[in-house]
Amino acid sequence: MKVAVVGCGPNGLCAIKNCISEGFEVVAFEQTSEIGGEWNSNLEIGPNVHSKIYEGLMTNLIKEIMEFSDFSYDQNITESFLTADKVQNYFLKYTEKFDLRKHIKFNHKVINVRPISDDQWEIIIKDLETDEYKTITSDKVFICIGISAPWMPKIEGLNEFQGKIIHSRDFRSTKMFENKKVLLIGSGASSLDMVIAIDKVAEKITWVNKIQETHGTSLKLELSQRTVEKTILIKRFTKSGAEFENGSFEEFDIIALATGYDFTFPFLSVDSGIAVYDKCVQPLYKQCINANRPSMAIIGLPWFALAMPMFELQIKFCLKYWSDRKILPSREEMLLDIKKSFQKDEFDKNNHKAHYLGIEKHEDYYNDLAQTAEIESIKPVIVKIFTHIMTHAFENFQTFRKHKYKILNDFDFLCDCSLKVDTKEEFQVHENEDKIK
Question: Which residues contact 12 (CB under 8 A, 6 or more apart)?
Answer without folding.
Answer: 5, 6, 28, 30, 35, 37, 142, 144, 145, 299
